[in-house]
Design goal:
With 438 residues, this protein is mainly α. The chain has one domain: Orthogonal Bundle (Ammonium transporter fold), CATH 1.10.3430. 64% of the residues lie in helices and 3% in strands. It is built from 15 helices and two strands. The longest helix is centred in the C-terminal third of the chain and has 33 residues.
C-alpha cells in the first residue's frame, strides 16, 4: 500500500476511472447476448447480472483476503534460496479495512477496482457457454472463481506476489525483470478466457452445430446491432479500468493517463480495422461479428501495456490481435471443434497472451530486452501450465455434482423458456432453428 501516492488529483481521477469500469461489463454483456440466439437473450443478461452480483459479494468478503495488497500480510514459501510470495493473508470479510481511515484509502480503492475486475473476468465464460450453460452452475462457478481462482493470480501480479518479484527471486539469473501487466490482460482476460475454454470443453457444442461428419454449421447471432454498440461501451469501460490500475498499482501521474486513453483507442481501432480488412480479403465482404471481436481483441491485447508503450506500438499490437482473432475463431470452431459462440476464448485468452508478449517486445521499461521477454514467458507458462489445469479440474469437479449443460428440451426451447419461463421478445415470433433436430 502506498497512500502517499494518492494526492487529491490522483484520488479524484482514480475514483472517476473506477466508476467508468462497469461500462466494460455492460459492453461485454451486450456482445455475448447479441452473438447468441434470441431465445436465450434474457437468460444471458440475467446470468450477467448474477455473475456481477455474486463476484462482488464473494470477492469483497472472501477473495480480497487471498488477493491482499502489495506490502501487506502474505503467505510465503522458501525454496531454491528464494522467498515465493504466493497468497495474501488479510482478514476475511474485509474487516481490516476502515473506510474512514485515510491511511487505508489506497487499499479500499484496490478492493473496489478488483471487485469490478473479477466481475468482468467471470463474465467471459458466459460467452463460450451461450445457449446451453444453466444459471445455477453459472452462479456456483462464479462464486468459486471469485473466491479462489482470480485472487491467486491477482496476488501474484498486482499485490506483490512472486510474479511481480521475479527480479528478486531470480536476480542471479540474467537479472530477470518482474512480470508486467498494467491493465489486467493476464489476470482478467487470459484467466477468464481459460475459464471459457474449460466451460466450452465441458458443455460440448450446441445441438446442430456440427454434422455427423464434423462439418460446422453457422449459427448467427440474433442482434449484431447490440454487439457493435457494446463495443463502444466497452471502450469507455476499458479506459477506466486500465487508467485506475495504472494509478493504483503502477503509481503513474494523472498526466500519464493521456497515454492510456490514446493507446486504448488506437489498439481497439487497429484491431477492428485489421479484422475488417482480413474478412474482406478472405470472404469478399467484411464480417460484422468478427470485426467486433477484433475491436475487443485490440482492447484486450493493449491492456497489458496500457500507457507504457508508444502509440505506434499500441497500434501494431491491436492490429496483430485483430488479425489473429479472425484465424483463431476459425481454428477453434472448424479444426478443434470447440463451440464458442462469442469467440471469448480467442478474444480474451488468445489476444491476451499476445498482449503479454507485446509488452516484452515494446514495453518502455528500464533493463535489457531479454530479461523482460523471459519474465513475460514465465507468466505465460504459469497461465497455461498451472492456471488452466487448476481451472479445468475445478470445473470438472463442480460439473459432477451440478451438471453444467441444459437438457435436450432446453436445447430446443431455448434458455429463456426453460430457465426463466418467458422469452426476451414476447411480442415477436421466435422461429425454431431448422438445423436443430427434435
Amino acid at each position: 500500500m502506498n497512500p502517499a501516492t494518492l494526492t487529491p488529483a490522483n484520488l479524484v481521477l482514480c475514483i472517476v476511472c473506477i466508476l467508468l469500469t462497469p461500462l466494460a461489463a455492460a459492453g461485454l454483456a451486450l456482445i455475448h447476448q447479441g452473438l447468441g440466439r434470441s431465445r436465450s437473450a434474457a437468460q444471458a443478461m440475467l446470468a450477467t447480472l448474477c455473475v456481477l452480483a455474486i463476484a462482488a459479494i464473494v470477492f469483497v468478503l472472501v477473495g480480497s483476503a487471498w488477493t491482499g495488497f502489495a506490502g501487506g500480510a502474505s503467505q510465503s514459501i522458501h525454496a531454491a534460496g528464494a522467498t515465493w510470495d504466493w497468497l495474501g493473508r488479510e482478514t476475511l470479510f474485509a474487516q481490516n479495512i476502515h473506510f474512514d481511515n485515510p491511511a487505508q484509502l489506497h487499499a479500499a480503492l484496490e478492493i473496489c477496482l478488483h471487485m469490478f475486475a473479477v466481475g468482468i473476468a467471470a463474465m467471459i465464460p458466459l460467452s463460450a457457454g451461450t445457449d446451453r450453460w444453466r444459471l445455477a452452475p453459472i452462479c456456483v462457478a462464479t462464486a468459486l472463481y471469485s473466491a479462489f481462482t482470480y485472487p491467486f493470480f491477482a496476488h501474484w501480479v498486482w499485490a506483490g506476489g512472486w510474479l511481480s518479484q521475479l527480479s528478486q527471486n531470480f536476480g542471479g539469473i540474467s537479472a530477470i525483470a518482474p512480470f508486467f501487466d498494467s491493465g489486467g490482460a493476464s489476470l482478467i482476460h487470459v484467466v477468464g478466457g481459460l475459464m471459457a475454454l474449460s466451460v466450452a470443453w465441458i458443455l460440448g457444442p450446441r445441438r446442430g452445430k456440427y454434422s455427423e461428419d464434423k462439418m460446422a454449421t453457422a449459427i448467427p447471432g440474433h442482434n449484431i446491432v447490440l454487439v457493435l454498440f457494446g463495443c463502444i461501451l466497452a471502450l469507455v469501460g476499458w479506459i477506466g479500468l486500465n487508467s485506475a490500475a495504472s494509478l493504483l498499482f503502477f503509481h503513474v501521474q494523472p498526466e500519464q493517463i493521456v497515454g492510456v486513453i490514446l493507446n486504448c483507442v488506437l489498439s481497439a481501432s487497429a484491431g477492428l480495422l485489421a479484422a475488417v480488412i482480413t474478412t474482406q480479403v478472405r470472404y469478399r465482404k467484411p464480417d460484422a461479428s468478427l470485426s467486433a471481436n477484433g475491436w475487443i481483441a485490440g482492447l484486450v491485447a493493449g491492456s497489458a501495456a496500457g500507457g507504457f508503450v508508444s502509440p505506434l506500438a499500441a497500434t501494431f499490437t491491436g492490429a496483430v490481435a485483430g488479425l489473429l482473432v479472425t484465424y483463431m475463431v476459425e481454428m477453434f470452431e472448424l479444426h478443434l471443434l470447440v463451440d464458442d459462440p462469442g469467440g471469448a476464448i480467442s478474444v480474451h485468452a488468445g489476444a491476451g497472451l499476445w498482449g503479454l508478449v507485446a509488452v516484452g517486445l515494446f514495453g518502455q521499461h528500464p533493463g535489457a530486452f531479454g530479461s523482460h521477454m523471459l519474465a513475460q514467458c514465465i507468466g505465460i507458462a504459469t497461465l497455461l501450465g498451472l492456471m488452466l489445469p487448476f481451472i479445468h479440474v475445478c470445473n470438472l469437479f463442480l460439473n459432477r455434482f451440478l451438471p453444467y449443460r441444459v437438457d435436450r428440451d432446453g436445447d430446443w426451447q431455448g434458455m429463456d423458456i426453460r430457465e426463466l419461463g418467458a422469452g426476451a421478445y414476447p411480442e415477436f415470433v421466435i422461429h425454431a432453428d431448422e438445423f436443430i433436430p427434435r
